[in-house]
Amino acid sequence: MKRSTKTRIKDKLVNITLEILEHFYNVGGFTMDAMISKSAARKIFHSNFYKTYTEVPFAKWLYRLRDQGYLSYTPGTESIEFTFKTKLKFLNQIGKQIEESPHYHFLSFDIPETEKTSRNMFRKAIKELGYIRIQQSLWVINKDVFDIVQTICYQLGVGKYIINIISQETDIDGILDKKFI
User: Fold this and answer.
1) Start-to-end C-alpha separation, the chain
2) For residue 143, what are the β-bridge partners?
């Protein structure tokens, strides 16, 4: 039995683990609060992946995803919860689903060097969400993603270093409009 998680799907090499997660997450709602039942996940796995791209049974994939930190579940229960690691992987898709807002949402942060890992993870997360950098620690987006940013701050423990500003008008509206077109 092949142990690799990479396979050819439609003439491209794809990490099948992420493909499976994306299918699960899509059914779960593609939100920060997404969850899925084991039976729904099993149906997705068997109809889309099993015997076509992999011979590894569903239970092994479930254990692999849990061991890699993508899923959280208790044996004997029916629900599967997506971990923060999974949610970070799909921030791009979550951000695309949120409609544009008439307001600009600015994010300013000054995370100290001692928390460099958290700062880099935070920067990567907001970039994936769709924020555009104006200056080194000043980012802007034209979508209402305040709740998602708060969740990211809480999970990374950097909330005390973040300032969120919502503005309808700025001195640089012309520049911002060009960046979001």
Assistant:
1) 49
2) 100
Residues 124-180 have pLDDT tens digits of 999 999 999 988 889 999 998 888 899 899 989 999 999 999 988 887 777 777 777
Q: 3-state DSSP call for residue 79?
A: strand
**Residue found under tokens 């791209």:** 53
> Which helix (H) or strand (E) covers residue 37, if one does?
strand 35-37
Cα–Cα distance list, 69 to 8, 17, 78, 89 (Å): 24, 12, 18, 12
Give which of 19, 13, 17 is closest to 5, Cα–Cα: 17
Question: Over the stretch 88-99, which tens digit does the pLDDT of each residue have?
Answer: 888 888 888 888
CB 80 within 8 A of CB 41: yes
Q: What is the distance between the alpha carbons of residues 26 and 68, in angstroms, rounded to a whole number?
A: 19
Q: For 130-145, give the secondary structure using H, E and C.
A: CCEEEECCEEEEEECC
Q: What is the pLDDT of residue 22?
A: 79
